[in-house]
Amino acid sequence: MSSDSLRGTRLGTQSQEKTTGIQYSPRQTVKYVCPKGHESEMLFSADAEIPHTWQCKHCSATAITDAVPTPPEVISNVSKTHFDQLLERRSRDELEEILAEALADLKKRREAAAAAS
Predict the structure, then answer these.
(1) H/E segment holding residue 53
(2) Stretch 51-60: mean pLDDT, rounded?
(3) How far is the C-alpha of 35 from the C-alpha of 62, rounded, in Å?
(4) Is-contact 33 61, C-beta < 8 A?
(5) Is the CB of residue 30 less than 8 Å from the CB of residue 51?
(6) Cα separation of 73 and 52, whole Å?
(7) What sign for the dihedral angle of Cα 67, 70, 74, 75?
(8) Report field, pTM of the whole predicted structure over 0.70
(9) Nearest CA among 30, 37, 33 for reference residue 64
(10) Helices marked H in 43-91
(11) Are 35 and 61 in contact (CB under 8 A)?
(12) What is the rounded distance in angstroms from the CA atom of residue 34 to the CA atom of residue 71?
């Protein structure tokens, strides 16, 4: 009568493991607030890197926390122009030299095209 031994237990709904003596890792609670004023508390491990933004549980907007300093990419979200990106890779003198070479090459090709026609 092995089936009688399991009678009355809720198989699959309750764990048969004992929870006594378990030590959880250290945790911290971080509060996030969305633009609409909804507050969400998230539980993180004590040694986890806390994200500055989190999706609001109520309205799915981006919520922020004051527990973590604002990362620089969130503060300055300014897009760079092509010229700004060029200045990161080369100096102004190098860019002027490259421009002079390109203009000289263009002038040669125009003169060659004018002579051919």
Answers:
(1) strand 53-55
(2) 89
(3) 8
(4) no
(5) no
(6) 11
(7) positive
(8) no
(9) 33
(10) 72-75, 82-89
(11) yes
(12) 17
> For the chain, what's the residue count?
117
Tokens found for residue 54: 């989190």
Sequence-distant (≥ 6) Cβ neighbours of residue 56 within 8 angstroms: 32, 34, 36, 38, 40, 62, 63
* CA–CA dist 65, 54 (Å, integer): 8
**Residue-wise pLDDT tens digits, 4-16:** 555 666 666 677 6
> What are the tens digits of pLDDT across the range 84-113?
888 999 999 999 999 999 999 999 999 999
What pLDDT is recorded for position 17? 74
Element (H, E) at 4: helix 2-5
Nearest-10 Cα torsion for 82, 85, 86, 88: 160
Distance of CA 65 to the CA centre of its chain: 15
Residues 52 and 65: beta-carbon distance below 8 Å: yes
Taken in order 46, 47, 52, 54, the sign of the CA dihedral is negative
10 token code pair? 């809720």
Q: Residue 43 is encoded by which pair of tokens?
A: 């539980």
